[in-house]
Design goal:
By secondary structure, the chain is of the alpha/beta class. Helix content is 30%, strand content 27%. 47% of the residues are buried.
Length: 525
């Protein structure tokens, strides 16, 4: 059953149940849409695309902020048999054109937040024949999204889909270079939906807080478990800044039961409560049964601080990547005693931890995690060389370093490309970050390697203090030196903001570029 069939099933079984609640707190706006309305609007998008010549396997790109229109467009593209290619809303014009040159879409669906960026390059977008525009001021040569839907049929499109049909073209976050176009089939999306629902046991009574960027596999795929169970989702519209207050008010007002919270949001909530900027007694959080997190390593100390406030909720974390259609491994609700691990392979998925020669490593040893299963990507679109490098003998080589314990639980260590080798010692930035984040005055931290003539590389810590506090190098050193081996001590401490992408991942290439000329003066240390 494809995810479009799951949507249609929900519309048939519970047509008048609320599927999506769209909120814009800054403007006091709230809108509901039922499963029947959701499905019919997706059908209209599909039929409009078919009427304009879109055929099975064509690419339709959409560049929109989070909204119910985003999901209607996405499901409509899939119902038409086309490949949906959602773009990162942070991309500038040059990056948008880079993605279009690869994907060669025939239609673009965009909203008013991106009209300036698209207008700048529009004359060079030769493959795009039609533009559907979501917004008030209709640009010349584009069609208004609502007018398009009003003129299209709400009937089910006569397109037969199978699990092997191509469904999504997702551009990776680009944390290791230019984004790569990852091609996913319908079976990948379906598999993720089943796994999410199995792991979190979502049902019609649940309310999922959907605040992650929808263009990213993680945000949308986590919601797929709720889609599978027929529960409703509360989503914030694009442009709304996600704050601790916004999250707490959404939980309180909408009776949210499941939250997927990235590490920065967990930090913001805990910090606001610790400092008295918010009072837990002002919010009714009794509806929440599950909070889960992912997209990056999660410091156990942060989780423990969070659970001191959210005492009656289950906590879970997971691991995934674009190439695995988002989350593919889960800690499991019953395994809080394994905090710090992201779990083990779930339904119809296999994983190995290997050394450089492809041999399985013993428990406790560091190795690369490789994956295979129904969720794995088909290929990197139009990039056979990178595909051959990443997909070998049916296994996806992730580039992530992990450790597996005697019980099979896997813990993240670091990206292979982020490994620091200093004086012949392997140093894993995540290990250091999990220590330094525990300093009470630290809001965020990132560890990078800095070139050094003597040691090859030395460790630099980029430290972002909490607002309104004074934090010194001596305080940092006094905190971490007793907890780390001397070879792993950060020799350079830099105070500044830690940049993260919309999914919460630290943008280390930006930090390396920012501090490219930093040198270590070993005098006295």
């Amino acid at each position: 059953m494809t995810i479009t069939e799951i949507l249609a099933r929900n519309a048939r079984l519970t047509p008048n149940a609320i599927a999506l609640v769209e909120i814009t707190p800054s403007k006091g706006l709230r809108r509901e849409i039922t499963w029947k309305e959701f499905d019919e609007r997706a059908n209209r998008v599909a039929n409009a695309l078919i009427d304009r010549g879109i055929k099975k396997g064509d690419v339709v790109m959409h560049l929109m902020m989070n909204s119910h229109n985003w999901l209607e467009a996405y499901f409509g593209i899939l119902k038409a048999g086309a490949i949906a290619a959602p773009l990162n809303f942070r991309f500038i014009s040059r990056q948008i054109k880079y993605c279009i040159d690869i994907a060669e879409p025939k239609v673009m669906i965009l909203d008013q937040d991106f009209i300036d960026r698209v207008t700048e390059i529009r004359k060079d977008l030769k493959t795009i024949k039609n533009y559907f525009f979501v917004g008030d001021k209709l640009p010349q040569g584009m069609e208004a999204f609502e007018d398009v839907l009003a003129k299209a049929s709400p009937a089910v499109p006569k397109i037969q889909l199978t699990g092997e049909d191509e469904a999504g073209l997702y551009f990776t976050s680009g944390t290791t270079g230019d984004p790569k176009a990852t091609l996913l089939c319908h079976r990948s999306l379906e598999h993720t939906a089943v796994n999410e629902n199995f792991s979190h046991r979502e049902n019609r009574k649940d309310c999922f807080l959907l605040i992650q960027p929808l263009y990213h596999t993680g945000g949308k795929m986590h919601w797929f478990g709720s889609l599978m169970g027929g529960g409703r989702a509360v989503m914030t519209t694009g442009g709304e800044r996600v704050t601790a207050k916004l999250i707490m008010e959404a939980i309180h007002k909408e009776k949210v039961t499941i939250c997927m919270l990235l590490v920065p949001w967990l930090q913001d909530i805990v910090t606001a409560l610790d400092r008295g900027e918010m009072k837990l007694s002002d919010y009714d959080i009794s509806s929440v049964r599950l909070v889960h997190s992912g997209a990056q390593p999660i410091p156990p100390v942060l989780v423990k601080r969070f659970l001191k406030y959210f005492t009656n909720v289950q906590y879970e974390e997971n691991y995934g990547l674009t190439e695995s259609a988002g989350p593919c491994m889960h800690l499991g609700l019953e395994n809080l005693h394994k905090l710090g691990s992201f779990g083990y392979p779930r339904l119809n998925l296999d994983a190995r931890v290997i050394d450089e020669k492809g041999n399985d490593v013993p428990p406790g040893a560091v190795g690369e995690i490789i994956l295979r299963g129904a969720n794995i990507m088909k290929c990197y679109y139009k990039n056979p060389e990178k595909t051959a490098e990443t997909l070998r003998d049916g296994w996806l080589y992730t580039g992530d370093l992990v450790k597996q314990d005697e019980e099979g639980f896997i813990s993240y260590v670091d990206r292979k490309k982020d490994l620091i080798i200093s004086g012949g010692e392997n140093i894993y930035p995540v290990d250091l970050e999990s220590v330094l984040i525990g300093q009470p005055k630290v809001k965020d931290v990132a560890i990078i390697g800095v070139p050094d003539e003597r040691y090859g590389e030395i460790v630099a810590a980029v430290v972002q203090p909490k607002e309104g506090v004074n934090l010194t190098e001596d305080e940092m050193r006094a905190y971490y030196e007793p907890m780390l081996p001397k070879y792993a001590w950060p020799r350079i401490i830099l105070f500044g903001d830690v940049p993260r992408n919309p999914t919460g991942k630290i943008e280390k290439p930006k930090l390396r570029e920012r501090y490219i000329d930093v040198k270590w003066n070993p005098k006295g240390k």
